[in-house]
């Protein structure tokens, strides 16, 4: 059933004297832009399968209980903004009629979960049933017009087709992932403390592997180590001899975005805390159950194929029994870009300004040859090119700009730029675009990124920080780290709750209730 | 696989100079007793399928977001107590050898959920899969000796065999239930705000039915009304015309434990707030989907069999389309009592003191003829009677006391008493028993219950309170209500967090993020 919008709906007051800006996505780019646009000037409508924004830098803290999950969330609907919201997947867009097809997704079973494939089609059904007990079912469709469209749908998690990772790894992209990680880690300890659990199985359950040596993987490892060293040590003293945290990365070094000095500092800290950092390591597969050698082994240490742990297979180490694998590496282009937006057009169309003419009949949006991201110009407007060249990128014969369609965030790449796919870039693009649209100054300005530096928490109240102001590491960097994220968090509600949890957990320890 | 305990397990330091007290259950009775027992005198071991204690009076607040879920929880394992813990179901007990068989339940899929039937056997598998995507699988077994056994396993939720209730109703017994209710209520509003949702479906989705007019049902209705009136009204202003809260009870009056005056005050408040209280109403069934009459109806208002809502069938009103039914009535005896403890014994056995001799060969624990609860004497010790009379209760020919087995909480009934199955009674019994065991004074004392009164929140910052000190209602009672529960909450962590959330939510409104 498809209904055209405006269709009698009471949650939306269509205001005809305003342009309607439809924002696809509620992440760093979409959520920020929607909040910054002037509601007097624009009717802002966010369409996203997720009803909230996640303050990603604090996810690792919530996954270990340093913070409560909700302190990293901001609902899109707020009594303090005029932003309108529909929970749904953008299904397709027509640049000619300027209409959008939306699939409603209120009961979206993947809500709060990292997506590793097109949720509505390829997502592993078993995994989904394990997690949510839900059947992949298509939601109702409805259509919607836009005056301006902003594509900020973000990326999925990349598993590089490694067998078993999609089904068995734990990701750290959304709050539901953080919740799964926290529950899993706690149940590993609880299971290890049972009299029915053998020594060898204790060792496996309490071996935690983190794949990916970027800031997320490093910060999660650091937070996990803090939790174990500060709290689990008091609650399960006799299990401390068994636990182990290992960080694996295919690259030769971790934290590659930091200077060698800071990266080395981080690794030294990890070594001192007993966290292994294994670079140039390759994951071959991940499956449920114990390593074969242990199943075959004799004696009391034998571990029958027990599904209570996982087996991580590494090219360099062979099979390793682990309690949990946290996968924090790689981005996969959102299928919405490659599938839904791939539709060819015949130019001229009203909304597209041809910059370099071409006699080509069929045109497509231009995508990045490697990442597959949408190419935009320095106004963040989507570029079109003749279909046969759309994937070439750079200067080609035939080029048009869709003036009322913008793309930003991890799914978009600005031409002639090498900005990383980070929250900082997404956030700056969103603030810049909102400002230009509010002031109608976009035609006289071009976006430029101002690198404010990078930070990472490395555990035991230490952090590293690199910026134009110079490098800082240790306790001071940690204080700046906390201060910065506290200042950056969106709502006053969270500005009150976050330090309260920091204080309460420092005083009494983190909560280990599992539900 | 069954292993005898002590078996090499590192989370337990068996201390042979202390008696081992095994406590079954982590609710008001079990958790309180375990904390109060002197660790220098006893080795306290809690066995429960749930790793935390739930402060039940605050559950309704957490289900509506007035408080964060964790503020109603206390983990059984704490760095501040010496209580040892195994997450498992007590499977069977042998009073002669004083051993206990435990089925480990760390991955217990029903963790945090109200049980409506024997979780490990009769629990509806579909429901379980819907909720947890888990297969009912039997956990490993291990055995354990006890010197003293305390049975405090509590009760299940009673659905009186009403068709569809077990599968489709929302309960409010554990924190997982509260979480489900909160997510469901929020998604009802989100779905109602979609352009694809018809007027009639909005009305159904936003009709919330509460079955059971006891304090829990009334407090939940009040909290739900507060949430809608204070927050949803600002976030979904155009949906306010559709919502409706109705409380159903089979009895002629609600809040029967209160004086008529206070009960009337509560009902007047509800009427003023637009909450229907429908007494003498009988639920016939509950199913997924819309009422038939609407599926058959014509025109734009037709609602095809849409699984997004439920149909509640009442003897008095016929089919009513609702967004959610919260079932807060009735207790069902824990199957552990009726099944696992039903094993017959041949007395004399060492641990049982015969008070009234009998030539009966087979003896059983004495259970209450109506509720099926374990009968105890005024020392909370379990009573045995000849099997053919075990269910008769009261004075019979043949009676013995098992000196080292105690029963308290909702699963136990003290003979010649009419104490209600409330947290207050369970809590007082636990405190009393801990005191007697710590001082070895149990043989010279008998338990008596001191009624401290009853309280209930009735919405809009008003409560009712009835105690020996007299009746109070309105704002003052509300202040006492909050003060009392704040004072009663177990940990300082929650004593800090609870008022923080009261304050933050009063200031900024409740959080509506759904995950």
Describe the structure in brief.
Chains A, B: One of its GO terms (molecular function) is NADH dehydrogenase activity. Chains A, B: One of its GO terms (cellular component) is mitochondrion. Helices cover 28% and strands 26% of the residues of chain A.
Descriptive notes:
2 copies of one chain form a homodimer. Chain A has 2 domains: 244 residues, FAD/NAD(P)-binding domain; 160 residues, 3-Layer(bba) Sandwich (FAD/NAD(P)-binding domain), CATH 3.50.50.100. In chain A, 53% of the residues are buried. Chain A is built from 13 helices and 27 strands. With 515 residues, chain A is an alpha/beta fold. The N terminus of chain A is likely disordered. In chain A, strands 1, 2, 3, 6, 7, 8, 9, 19, 20, 22 and 23 form an 11-stranded mixed β-sheet that branches. In chain A, strands 13-12-11-17 form a 4-stranded parallel β-sheet. A 3-stranded antiparallel β-sheet of chain A has the order 14-15-16. In chain A, β12, α8 and β13 form a beta-alpha-beta unit. The interface between A and B is large, with 79 and 80 residues. Chains A, B: Keywords: FAD, Flavoprotein, NAD, Oxidoreductase. Chains A, B: GO terms for molecular function: NADH dehydrogenase activity. Chains A, B: Belongs to the NADH dehydrogenase family.
Record keyword descriptors for this entry.
FAD/NAD(P)-binding domain, 515 residues, disordered N terminus, four-stranded parallel sheet, homodimer, eleven-stranded mixed sheet, alpha/beta, 2 domains
